[in-house]
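Human: Not sure, check this?
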Amino acid sequence: MITSIAHATIYVLNQDEALDFYKNKLGFEIGDDMKVEGGFRWLTVYPKSNSQLQLVLAEPKEGPMFNKEAAEKIRSLIAEGAFGAGVFETENCQQTYEELVAKGVEFIQPPTEQLYGVEAMGLDNSGNWFSLVQR
């Protein structure tokens, strides 16, 4: 029986730049940052208040997971904003939105009332959208 989800993957264009964004703009902590077999870098981050689900910041590269063509297609789709980085919860969407805008985070939707709460939509530095939600 599966009991929890430990990691979810976000494909990014550059791991160093993504780490800087998630750490210094969104305030995430580093979970793991290590080189593993085959030159693959295992890099995870998580919100300071919750390390139960960590985000893997992965670069699509040619290797065991992708052939060269697939890696190039995924990189192209990331840059076009075709992928999402997830839904990040906050206690105060408007305040968090303003704090992130002041840090230079780009938003494509300001805080807006939805059926499930207040939601703003932002972009990470690779072009992945993320949702900022106050329930």
